[in-house]
Amino acid sequence: MEDYILEMQNITKEFPGVKALDDVTFCVKKGEIHSLVGENGAGKSTLMKVLSGVYPVGQYTGIMKISGKEQEYNSVKDSERAGVSIIYQELGLVGTMTICENVFLGNEIVKNGHIDWDAQNRRCVEMLKRVNLDEKPNTVVETLGTGKQQLIEIAKALNKNVDILILDEPTSSLTEQDSKNLLDLLKQLRESGMTCIYISHKLNEVKEISDTVTVLRDGRTITTRPIGELDENKMISYMVGREMTDVYPAKTHTPGEEVLFEVRDWTVPTRKNPEKNLLDQISISVRKGEIVGISGLMGAGRTEFAMSLFGAWQDKPCSGEIYFKGKKRERFRHPREAIDSGLMYLSEDRKRFGLLLNSDLKVNMTLSSLNKISKGGVIDLDLETEQAMQGVKDLSIKTPSVLQLAKNLSGGNQQKVLIVKALLTKPDLLILDEPTRGIDVGSKYEIYQLMDKMAKDGISIIMISSELPEVINMSDRVYVMSDGKIAGEFDTKESLVTQETLLQCSTGK
Amino acid sequence: MREKRANITGVLYKNSLLIELIIIFALFSFLTNGTFISTRNLSNLMMQGVTCSIIAITMTLVIVSCNCDLSAGTALGCMGTIAAVIQVKAGFGTAATLLVVAACSLVLGLWHGFWIAYKKLPAFIVTLATQLVLKGIILAVGNGASIGPMSDSFSKFGSSYLPNLGESSVHITSLVIALAGCVIFIVISVRGEKRKIQQGLIEANWNKKIIKIVIVVAAIFVVSGIFIFYKGFPYAIVVLTALAAVFHYVVNNTVFGRYVFAVGGNAEAAKLSGIKTEKINMQIYMLHSLIVGVASVIYLGRVGQATPTAGTSFEFTAITGCVVGGTSILGGRGTIVGAVIGTMLMASLDNGMSLLNMGQSSQYIVKGLVLMLAIAMDVISRSKRG
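The joint structure predicted for all components is written out below.
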């Protein structure tokens, strides 16, 4: 029997309609760096949320033991008490507070009812030394770069006497030098006996620092092996193979020859870390009536790319050249400009960025194209109703009436409402961001059919998707994005593109 | 059985405004031995409520778009003071005075729009700050004294009645207008309903529609009757009705109205739909400020002189009226007609409590609690329904 500090056995977690974790077993030895890899949606985050108490006992089934003792958390606080600490990709620091205040946030050293600042500062200096950060405790956090902030997060975790440190994509927003420092720190912490769970898409980093690797796919454990037995290719072959459960309609469209849209050297700096570009010299082109897929892992910058093209990123400077319908043009400064020129974007987050949930379907459908059905600012309500009803009919949206509120529809039907909204703007180029996320299989097929039909009607489509089979089957061409850059381009007609090829490209190999 | 009960709750909720009106009227009529529902008092009551009701019209747009305005009452007082000073002390004519008030209101709208829409400062703080600034201006311009009287032509807006064409004690002009209003309402409702049925939007349910029309027509007659048997329609009520009708149309039939609701319902989605949210917010504050200017003219006309405390807490009455009338404090939902009725309800409360000689202290407590209750009902019902 080996010395496991963490044993998670037969963990199953279900969301309505989906099994996010299906009988997962995940065991971590004391003092090792154990990497957890898998595609988007493989269940890594869900598993870590079970481990850190975000999903309390009762919301999942299975057994979890830490140092041999069975754990039943009711909250995140319980997991911290058991020695588990998680550092998310999005940092959880309060920018306006000092390093010391952040490190002790929620854990203040209190003496006689007031904070003992001397003791806190002394301990903070100690912690900063442990994470190799040469800063004063009273430095305000937001004046530091992302790399240093990451180290403060680790100092904060160490301060809680953590035994198991979980890092979720820690290097995704770091420069190379900062990443290297972080990896060195992790190795150093391992020397001192800390156990680390490391989640990353960057397989070269995984290869460099891990002792053991567990691969998840579709909510199941595929394998757990010592790093010696794995290389990057082997990891990839374990990660892919998402079953082709979805059926795809036969392609009936043929892309034209004429290039409709082209962007060259599109560059957007990161807000907080100006040394690193969020998007770095991206160049892509789309032909008329073509479906172009953009594949890539979470955090590769795909949504940011789409939003910045669409003019919804205006507070930050974007640079690069845009050619649209054969003419060079200024970048779009507002979605209105983009829509009026024939570019429309539908967000991956339908509820937050797409729908007016408390308004009816009619209002939702015509919102972007009211200028087409109004005169002197007065809406032709009859025409509006007519258009909306036509949309419901054409896309067979299941609803009793166009007066139904958007929130009362299923995910698939909501997506169709948004597609009607996009079509009413008469777009030449439509960007669909994760068009089938959270949609049942039947509706997915209908959405695929619609996309094919739109392309056949001459609309060009850029489809951003995390589902490799979907990208391969629906696109004429695929760009792979990785770390804010275009990492590869594949023509799905000319050569056989496999899930492995795309994933290899995404993981920066 | 349970379904039936849920149905009844739904009907009660939908008509809560009507029910509240009936309860308040019945209660006060009983407690004041009928003084409350005398035509004289009701006419008075509506004249007291008319200023806040006018403010409530555009306050609805402000709240629907997830903004707020705490300076409306003080702005009304300030514009009133300026108008009084230039007319009484500097001898401006009525037309010139009106122009100055309009200019002041546009400046105020631009000021709010600049900070709230374009600089993204929280509306609550900006308008609170403006409130204090305007208070200072009132004292500086008016020297803290009452200024009056206003000229007859100016006072007309607030205190005169439509001329009576007939000779009888019944006010013929008003009667004709009320009848015309009913006919227009019936024609519009029936045509709208017919069109909806024709388009297949709703199933024909004429019984329900007819009951609704009868109730509204009855309400028009009751309200008009108060004036017809007293002194006829005051100009102020005519202005209120006309503005309410115009903004009802704006909300339901224009692109601007649609955008206001979209910005309030989901600002991020609105922006990605191509709506220039900054521009919409700016337009809302400009319009609102202009309407506050109109309200100030009517108020000043009725009172006849500007006082340093004029307009104090009018915004409170207007906001409460909006919320009582079904405007959601969380944005994205509300109606103009509801807001006007809600504000009149608040005026009734005011009037009734004064008739009962209740002290200022208990009046404040009651009004505060009413706002609290209305917001609680709004937020809780909304979170329940998701």
